[in-house]
Structure formats: C-alpha cells, structure tokens
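for the record, two folds in this file. i put them one after another cuz i was lazy. first one right below, seq on top, structure tokens after. the second one comes after a little note so u can tell where it starts
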Amino acid sequence: MWAHIILASFLIPSLEAWARPNVGGGLAESETDLIVSEAQKDQWAKFEGQRVHQITVIGLVRTRLVAIEWLMHTKRGEVFNTQQFVQDLQTLYNTGNLYDLVGNLESDGHGGVDVTVTLKDKWTLFPVIGGQAGGGSQTVGAGVFESNMLGYMVNTSLLVWNFNGTTSFDLNANQEYFAGTEHMWSLDWQDNIEAQTAHNFNGSVAGNFAWRRQQNEFMLGTHLEGPWRVYAYASVYRDSIANNDGGFFINIPYQGVQQRIYPKFIYGKVDWTNYQESGFELTVQPTLANLVGAGPEYFALELDFKKVWKTGAKDKDNTAIYLSTSHMTSAGPNFLYNLGGYYNVRGYSDMREVGRDMAFANLEWRPYLLRQRWNFLDLDLMVIQGCLFTDAGSAWGDSSLTGDPLAANFHLLWSAGAGLRVNWVKFAGAILRLDWAQTITPAEGVGFSFGIGQFF
C-alpha cells in the first residue's frame, strides 16, 4: 500500500491558483454564496445611467477598504452599469478571501444611486507544520502562509525545513490587480532540497536521491481584454545533488548559475476552491533555458486544459476534467517530469515514472453532499462533496536516471477511486481532501492520501 500525507506543500498556492480573473458573464456562471438573479439584475437596471453617489462596504475586518476599491470598477461619481457591478462582485469573490457577498442599490433621493456591498472576510493566516521519514532520510519543517497580507490582497508564504541536517527555505510574495491596475507580480527566493524515490519500469524501488535548487525568480503579468492572462517569469538558479542513496549516476550538466524564462498564456479560468464551479482554462507554457551563458540549453512546452461544469438535477454537483501534456529536449534528471501519486495519477507511488515526455488525464465527479453553518468556534460555512475519479497517464522518453532501458517506453498507469472534499469556506484554502485509489494497470495495490488544498 502506498500512503501519502500531504500538508505543508499543498497549503501554499501558486499565483495562477490564487489569481482568479474577472472574465465576465456574471455570477450565473459561478454559483457562490452571492447569488445575483436575473430578477435582481432587472431591478438594478432602473439605476442605469445614474451617477454613483457613494459606495459603502460593510463587514470588513481584515481587508482594507482601499483594496476593495482597487478591485471594483464601479466608482463614486461615475455612471452606474449593472453588468459592471455584477462583475465587480464576482471579482471580489474570486480573490478567495471574501464570501457571503451581497450587493444592494438604493436611490440617494437626488437622481443618483447609493451602492452597498455586504461581505465577510475569510481567515487567511495559517501556520503549517509537517514531516516525512523513510529511505534513510528525514525532513521536518514549518512555516506560515497569508493570502491577504496587511489587508491588501497580497499572497505571501514562508516555509523553512530541515532535510538530513541541511536547512532549506522558500519565501514567496505575489499580488494580482496591483494598486487597482490589471497588472500582477510575484517574487520567489528559495533554497529547496527535495527528496525523491526513483522506480524501475516494473515498479520496484531503484533508490533515493535529493536535488537542491537555489533560485531567485520574479514574474510580471497582466490581464488582457477578455479572459486572457499573460505571465512572464524569469529566474536564475543553481542545482546540486544533496544525497544519492540509490547509487545513481546523476550528471549535473553545469555547476554554475543558470537562467531560464518561461511565459505563460492562460485563456479562461477555473477556480478549484469554489465548491460549485463552472468554467474552463487553457494554459500554454514554453520554457527556454540558458539562452546566454555557459549552461546547457534546453526547451520545454507544456499544455494544460481544465474544465468544470455543473451537473445533477439541481446543478449542485461538479464534473471536472484535467488534461496535461509536456515535452522537453535533453536535460538533466532534475528537470524530468514525474508521474504518480497525489499530483496526477493517484494510487501509485510518487515519481512512479519519469521522462522527458508526459501526458495524463483526470476525471472527477463531485456530488454535493452537505452544506452547514456552524456557530461552534465561529467555523461558519462548511460544504462537503464526495468524489469519484479515474486517473491515467505516462511519463517516458528517458531512462538515464535509473539506467533501466524499459523506462524510456510509454507505459500507461491507470487508477480509479473515491474521496471526500470538506470545504471550510471561511478559511481561505482550507479544503480537506481525502482520496483512496485502486491501481488498475498495472495493479500495484491501493493508495490513500490526505491533504489540504484542492488542486484537482
């Protein structure tokens, strides 16, 4: 049996996961605690063309009023537009830091309109702690993450951990809609040691090793017209091997500082944290490494497609599909794609297959089970979903890590299983995920995983 407990690493969302853009279409496309009915829109339409006299926001505790004003395109003194106000409310919800949003309009008695937004702040500051032992190594670490730093919707995280006596850290900060603009940014500083367990083609353990990456990275991005987002990442990094219990012959192509750039082009949006989501997202990411300098050049291309739609008699269930494929030119084992485990094909061990080519597909049906308000400890809104899933994929095209020539072949991994999703809506990102998976082809037993954060 393969058992995985995933905590700290899944509590820290990337900017793409956190940055959920306003793509139009109104709230009818994404049911939330804020429901703007067609009747409500018709009622608001009578205020079209009137000047906004004042905007009042009720319920702010942790979030600054100026951060709300940055996100809203409905402004005091400007002409009111119903569709824009609906989109503003969706944008506030899409931050992931606010819930129970309600909009209200009233005449100011002088030919203008008063706008009121009532909402609740989520609790966004969380400590994390975790540990792992086995294969002759041990890791223990702790940290903190905050998705609304100082009330300005800045996403930050800090993790510090110790791997076999060597200390690692990862410090990240990012923000979307910077100072009320359509632009975004992120900074990342890390000294990251990650333990790996490699496997032979037949599934047997080939040994353990760990890579150390020391990296500085920054990103600038923007929202374009429509549902497009564009990110431009640039990083400098140095790779080294931390240990090699498996006796692998791992050639680090270059010991000096290397660099890479990788733009991301994203069309559409999917919010995995929304328990009743509807939408799609397509991501194209090319990577170019070491265009200048002495490091080895390589090229990679990744394509991802996500789609979620409402199903069931009352449109309360979710069906979700995730397709991903990647290819890279020749590069060291530290760059190879890996397949298996919590990330993609559940039930199999982590890093069950590695290669320069990878493709996988996930399909989930998440039936709506329960929605409850809790006064106990002020937990507030909780939503529970079930989950039936199947995963399939392969990583192939390179056998250099283990030296097993069969590892270069395409070898399908296929599993299926059931799980549970517990979404504590008041607490940003606090989605408890439990999955039990049975491996099918090849049959290698069952796997159980528990984590915080819904990434698929």
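(here's the note) second protein begins now
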Amino acid sequence: MIYQNAGAALTAGSGVKIGLRIGVCLVDIPATTGTGAVMVEGVHKVVKAASQAWTQGALVYWDDTAKNFTTTSSGNTLAGYIFEPAQSADTVGYVKLNQ
C-alpha cells in the first residue's frame, strides 16, 4: 500500500496508523508531503513498549501516542498478535499484523 504522510517523518520499520488499520513502513517517509510503501500484513520486527514481556499469540496494539507496539489495549488500536515471545528488556519484538 502507498501511504501519503501528513504528519511527522516516519522511518523504515516504524508503525503507522491508517484509519483502523496498522501498517509498518517499508521505507523512510518524509513529513507532510512524503509518500512511501507501507505493509499492512505479514510478520514484522517492530519497536515494542519498554518493560513489557511478550507472550507468543497474545494480542498486540499500536500506541499512536508513544509510537510503539504494546500489549495494553486501552486507548490503542488492535494491530495483530505477538509472533514470538520477547523479554521485558527487549526493545523490539515480532508482530503478525491483522489482515
């Protein structure tokens, strides 16, 4: 999917909210007028919320304020599920995006 960025610059690998869907940028996308490829399915290495241990198969959400993936559902958008476990000290994890 081609995403038209209307906000802050996005880096490859970062999450992005597109309506009620969550995608992962495949390329850097400049702020305001930039466009770029975003994947809205598949398994991706993503930035996870600090201090959270992730359990394989648990639901994962996109926190559009903190700009990371989290197991906290309140106020966040369902993104998919945790593809493989991650320790609380880990800064990244693997997420399978909803289709």
